[in-house]
Amino acid sequence: MTTTGRRALLTAGVSAAAAAALSGCTSEEPAPRKPGAAELEAERVARAEAALRLRSVTASRTLLERYDAALAAHPALAPRLNPLRRSVAAHAVALGEGGTTVRPATAAPSAAPASSVSVSASASASASAKPTASPVPVAGDPRAALRELAAAERTASDAHTAALLTAPPEYARLLASVAAAGAAHAYLLTEGARA
After folding, report:
1. Tell me, what's the pLDDT at 10?
2. Has this prediction a pTM greater than 0.85?
3. Does residue 139 contact residue 189 with C-beta atoms inside 8 Å?
4. Average pLDDT, the chain
5. Among 47, 88, 113, 181, which is least packed by CB within 10 angstroms?
6. Are 107 and 39 in contact (CB under 8 A)?
7. Is the separation of the CB atoms in 174 and 95 below 8 Å?
8. Which residues contact 190 (CB under 8 A, 6 or more apart)?
9. Do residues 64 and 87 lie in contact, with contact meaning Cβ atoms separated by under 8 Å?
10. Quick one: what percent of the chain has pLDDT higher than 90?
11. Neighbouring C-beta atoms of residue 81, cutoff 10 Å
């Protein structure tokens, strides 16, 4: 082999290696893998549970606002309403605890934390936020205010009962307990006062 032949061979080899190295640097990142059916179903279930938890917490927070409005309008009812209000506040916290974090199965791994949805964070943010809507109207008569509060308890209890159909087992037990407590509160606000 001549010197020219070796040089040509080395030059061709170096050129090929350089081209391969450069093509590796400029190639695009592989596309994110498509999630499987099981991953998509798990995401759907997690989103449904997150929405259910948010609705449940919202129902309890709305009821809590009704108690606060009734107490502000009728301070003389405080001995009767404060224990029930504390119970409703505890229910709102319990319903929001243990919220699931939903990460989209279709997102790239680096983008998942930024786009995740956390129910417990949403629930605690709504629990600590002051209501910006207009104040809840309360009847001027204390007995009528108690009847309105009992109706609000029944509405929240019915909402929690309806949510049982789609709730996961552990959360369904909590919802059933909160719904039963709401029914008892409604009784104590109306019928229980007559006894």
Report:
1. 55
2. no
3. no
4. 75
5. 113
6. no
7. yes
8. 146, 147, 150
9. no
10. 35
11. 23
